[in-house]
Amino acid sequence: EARPQSRPYMACLKIQRGASYIHCGGFLVSENFVLTAAHCQGDNITVILGAHNVWKWEPSQQRIRVRRQIPHPQYNSKTLKNDIMLLELEKPAKLNGDVKIIPLPRMGECVKPGMVGSVAGWGCTVAAAKVLQEVDVEVVVDNKCLVYDYYDRATMLCAEHPQQWEDIVPGDSGGPLVCDGKAQGIASRGSRPGKIPGTYTRVSAFIGWIHKEMGVTAQP
């Protein structure tokens, strides 16, 4: 379990698809935008910010509807290539001690094998997690993920738990892989513990697209 309010950039997405609901993770990258995975699209999405227990109301929470879903134009739902999406909020998030923006990497910034980062989410553990869970993962060599036919070294990261018994689970998709305080990856495909690492969208490969869609000037 994560320490309450230790990850103020985390967003829980309540996604309506027809008559059913699913959950994904995401993270706040500006007052008006949340970044997540493109496979977390839905008919309607509500973003919950500042939460620890998403199954009850907390004074720290902000619940904001999504005005516009912006999946990457080259997203492929079969291969999960370009699995990245911006969500424009209906109203700006109020930044405070419980709700903060996480920095993004520079364009093309490298994440080397052996780096240890962390992922978090409200996905299914034994049952659906009510409170935010977290786990450390290690970035590993791309060759370990080549078992996935469509693994793309340029736009994906390969990572696993060092002991290979914990990793991202259903409901964690879209959450950030955080290394050195930056959102370097987006949870895309979970691992098979002890067998195949998980894959993450490499955020640094999409900085130009992110800034273009958000209408901001790219970092030098």
Automatic annotation (TrEMBL):
PROSITE patterns per UniProt: TRYPSIN_DOM (PS50240), TRYPSIN_HIS (PS00134), TRYPSIN_SER (PS00135)
Keywords linked to the UniProt accession: Disulfide bond, Hydrolase, Protease, Serine protease, Signal, Zymogen
Domain Peptidase S1: 1-215
Record has Disulfide bond as a keyword: yes
Chain coiled-coil ranges: none
Record GO terms (molecular function): serine-type endopeptidase activity
Pfam family, one: Trypsin
Domain of life: Eukaryota
InterPro entries from the UniProt entry: Peptidase_S1_PA (IPR009003), Peptidase_S1_PA_chymotrypsin (IPR043504), Peptidase_S1A (IPR001314), Trypsin_dom (IPR001254), TRYPSIN_HIS (IPR018114), TRYPSIN_SER (IPR033116)
Gene Ontology biological process terms from the UniProt entry: proteolysis
Gene3D superfamilies: Trypsin-like serine proteases
Name of the protein in its database record: Peptidase S1 domain-containing protein
Naturally occurring in which organism (per UniProt): Pelodiscus sinensis (Chinese softshell turtle)
